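User: Thanks for the earlier help. One more: Heat-shock protein IbpA. Can you show the sequence and predicted structure together?

Assistant: Of course, both are below.
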Amino acid sequence: MRTFDLSPLYRNTVGFDRLFSLLDGSGNAVDGAQTYPPYNIERTGENAYRVTVAVAGFTPEELSIEVKENALSLRGEKAQPQASAGNQLLYRGIAARAFERRFQLADHVEVKGAVLENGLLHVDLVRNIPEAKKPRLIPISTVAQSQTIETKADSPEQAHAA
């Protein structure tokens, strides 16, 4: 069961639904959707995104982030708890289990960095579209303008031919 709804993001974007679908769908297991650790996906700018994963109790040394072939992998593995002198654990309610969460990244999406803050791991992503794939404006001319251009282009050649 999903804990959040990405439909508001779908309404505000055209043509980038695949990015959200890949990020959203890849984090879930096929059987019994994986729910640990919980995460959010935010759009922080026109071409910027942030994946936030709740990793309370983990230190930066116990977490790893890997990007390979358009796949972002977040892993966490707690060190074995050391028995404190005189303390006995009666109930364990804070999850300390190992996890691996994978996200499929769309083409041209790069990881810019990651920050661990207040038990939340923030991974910043940016979509860098190559210049050749960026939209460009095409000027629209009228028939009269195109004939004028052709006439001007033909004039010097005709002058040299005569």
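User: Great, one quick takeaway?

Assistant: The chain has a mean pLDDT of 76.
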